[in-house]
Input
Amino acid sequence: MNAKNKVLISGGAGYIGSHTAVELSEAGYDVVIIDNLTNSEINAIEGVRKITGKDIPFEKVDTCDINELRKVFEKYDFDTVIHFAAYKAVGESMAQPLKYYNNNLISFLNIMELMKEFDRPNILFSSSATVYGEAESLPVTEQSPRQPATSPYGNTKQMCEDILRDSCRAYPGIYGIALRYFNPIGAHPSSLIGELPRGVPNNLVPFITQTAAGIRECLSVFGNDYDTPDGTCLRDYIDIVDLAKAHVAAVRRMTSGDMQEKYEIFNIGTGKPVSVLELLTTFQEVNDIKVPHKMVDRRPGDVPAVWANTDYANHVLGWKAERTLAETLKSSWDWEKKIRKIQ
Ligand code: UD1
Output
């Protein structure tokens, strides 16, 4: 197989990385995974191998160590890198900004340096809807202005987008795509991989599934006095397998020479706003389980509403979210039950 069909995935043992590894592999790409396992488990690699039936190569490598990373570039012949390896907790980034700037920026700079050194052309960066902040008009398009970041985490996403844009502009051999994810949720239908946050979850769906499993007593709904239909925040919850498939479409675009610009940005969401209460109700209905919950104050830093205009991804990538919210929330609960050994 030629280098065009080979993809290096940094952070491939993580939530989005592992699902992407599966979809790429199933689409016929040869995948190599690297991860330092600081915020992920080796079991995810086993899950990916089990689902695909392929002995996907894995190297325990810290992308912040350029010498370790160089060995991966020497050993494997790939044209495309998908860079997931990063810290992602908003609150922690406020308390420990240097940890975030160091890790998220150095790892990406190292990847970019080596792409240049080894003449590897395609880099896909995992960005976030957080770059839109509190948008002036909804839904947001890729042209909607980025707002000043409200956390070091969000700032690293913006800075990495800029590093990518400038590198694509300056180096003739480098092409980049940034995918701005909205709120990824759900798990692989096999329940062999899924989201596994360490400690108390910050995100809504893992908190719901852990409450349903009896690990947490009660879900706090952060604010029911927003200017939204039911008073709770609106988000665009994108199924993890659909999200993984967007990466396959983006890799295909890069490797087939279809890119119109050297750097392209795509929103990856469903295009549909869903409220916290609507999501909670759907979860309870589809899984036939009660989730204790209470209304509490707003969480500082939360925006009232954000959802994607996905026209550009739909038309240009030929990709569209397919799984329903109900299917996705069923997969979240199936995964939680599997890891907690609940019948
Ligand atoms: C956050 C980050 C985003 C990051 C994403 C994935 C911001 C503003 N947001 O998105 O950058 O990419 O996580 O890690 O930086 N909620 C509750 N109770 C809970 C938890 C959440 O009511 O226990 C509500 C929140 O108020 C929000 C919604 O659920 O309205 C979604 O929250 P969450 O899953 O944390 O994602 P975001 O804050 O949208």
